[in-house]
Amino acid sequence: TLIKYGVDSIKLNLSGEAITGTGAEETPMSEEEVAMAVKEAKARGKVVAAHARSSESVKQCVRHGIQNIYHASFADEEALDMLEAAKDRHFVAPGLAWLICTARHAGEYGIKPGSAVAMSYERELEMAVETMRKMHRRGIRVLIGGDYGFAWTPQGTNAKDLEYFVEMVGMSPMEAIVAATKYGGQIMGMGNELGMIKEGCLADMLLVDGDPVANVKVLQDKDRLLAIMKDGKFHKRPPVQEQRRRLIA
Q1: Could you give the domains of the chain?
Q2: Helix (H, G, I), strand (E, B) or coil at 65
Q3: Which of 196, 185, 103, 200 lies closest to 141 in space, CA to CA?
Q4: First vs last Cα of the chain: how many Å apart?
Q5: What are the φ/ψ torsions at residue 198 (nearest 5 degrees)?
Q6: Quick one: average pLDDT of 191-207?
Q7: How do residues 20-55 score in pLDDT, each as one tens digit?
Q8: For residues 27 and 71, is the Cβ–Cβ distance under 8 A?
Q9: Are 10 and 46 a contacting pair, CB within 8 Å?
């Protein structure tokens, strides 16, 4: 059905999720089921992604060539070895904001800090941070983003992930910026068009009042994003140019 409607990517649920009442370390799909789903998606030219928190689900992703792996919190050493050996073919997006905000900031939405669900996410967060640190050291591509758009992880707060990657995962600010830009182009199969400032790439750029390489948190301050350019066109004009435009008008 999804393919009929023209989607570009098919996502499989290969592990559980605490908020739904299933364990994050559960792996419900068999090897045969995963193999068939991936075969059908790839036969139609679709990118395959997976919700994969459990260690076994991460291994399924590597065994069956699932490119985009979301979460991977509980990946054990065997899973990490498999990922490292195939790191040019996979991307991992942990979705740390979901874990943090669901555990600590979703009380008004019915998930009280200290509740069973919240504590399960606290435990997973601890595991996820350690796992992502290991992946980063192994050169596995770890990307920001994922699971924004919920009431307690609203759209527009995505730049918080850069802070998490620096303070929790151990990336330098520049490494976090690369995870948010260059790897973003690669995961979409558009690495020659997106995610870099170079000739031939689409002009998607920010003009920032400050130095994100010195303090990556500056990207969370919307007032310090002086200009936003998308595909070579201004979504937000720089202040001087905007004032000049108004004077001419």
Answers
A1: 3-197 (3.20.20.140), 203-249 (no CATH)
A2: coil
A3: 185
A4: 51
A5: -160, 160
A6: 94
A7: 999 999 999 999 999 999 999 999 999 999 999 999
A8: no
A9: yes
**The pairing of beta strand 9-13 with beta strand 47-52:** parallel
**Ramachandran area for residue 111 (φ above 0: left; ψ -120 to 50: alpha; else beta):** beta
pLDDT tens figures, 74-93: 999 999 999 999 999 999 99
Enter the tokens of residue 123. 């435990």
pLDDT digit string, tens, across residues 152-185: 999 999 999 999 999 999 999 999 999 999 999 9
Structure tokens at 4: 């009929």
Take residue 189 and report the two structure tokens written for it.
């199969």
Q: What pLDDT, on the 0 to 100 scale, is given for residue 224?
A: 96
- Strands (DSSP E) found in the chain: 9-13, 47-52, 68-71, 91-93, 205-208, 225-230, 233-236
**Any bridge partners for residue 228, and if so which?**
206, 236
pLDDT band of residue 2 (cuts 50, 70, 90) is confident
Which DSSP helix (H) or strand (E) runs through 213?
A: none
How would you label 184-223 residue by residue, b for 16+ Cβ within 10 Å and e otherwise? bbbbbeeeeebbbeeeebeebeeeeeeebeeebbbbeeee
What angle, rounded to 10 degrees, do the helices at 116-138 and 96-104 form?
160
pTM: 0.92
